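2024-03-11 09:14:02 DEBUG pipeline.ingest accepted 1 chain
2024-03-11 09:14:02 DEBUG pipeline.ingest length=238
2024-03-11 09:14:03 DEBUG pipeline.predict start
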Amino acid sequence: MAWFKRKNKEQKSQVVPRHIAFIADGNGRWATEKGLPRFEGHKSGKEAIKKVLDRCYERGIEIVSLFCFSTENFNRPKEEVDYIFNLFRNWEGLAESLIKRDAKFRLMGDLGLIPEDIQEKLKELTEKTADCKTHVLNFGFAYGARHEIVNAVNNLIKDGVKEVTEEIFEKYLYTAGLADPDLIVRASGEQRLSNFMLYQAAYAEFYFPQKYWPDFDAKVVDECIEAYQKRKRRFGKV
């Protein structure tokens, strides 16, 4: 797919990232600072996802990855984990919204760790959006990069692969067939990957806005893209 170029009479057209990956961090802290229960932070974080996706697709971003629930997040209190799962269970209209944007849904995570009813919902989303071609939503749910890499190695062994190249290895990752992220954005100002896309992030640019995820909107997406456009990517060259 061709990269989209911003059309703005006041600014020179610049290439936008093909793939932006977001670490949706800070829901709980956002709520706590406002004197609200942590659950309210997750609810507002879900609303921010729609704002971010809409703006990314408006700007012509081909692939959007969202890190929403990690393998480590299962260690949180059960009531919080259950609430997050219920937010997804009750996410009405997601398939229709993606189809409207011509966006294919892909799960980046271990389906076997997720409750069966949500597994079915994820499979249904994947099937309903299978014919979409313009954009991709790569949804990080029950995801951890180390888990992904170990899983890939075990599957390589299971398939009897004797000699592994980068090209072969990448086919066993959850992101098989997708371009690596050009830009990784972590909400909340924290400056770490937290076990996110460790292999795929090899040449990504990084940006750390001082905003919690529930405060992300179209304006923040534009700021992320503008920050990326100021970078000069060399990929090891001069």
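2024-03-11 09:14:41 DEBUG pipeline.report The longest strand covers residues 135-143.
2024-03-11 09:14:41 DEBUG pipeline.predict end
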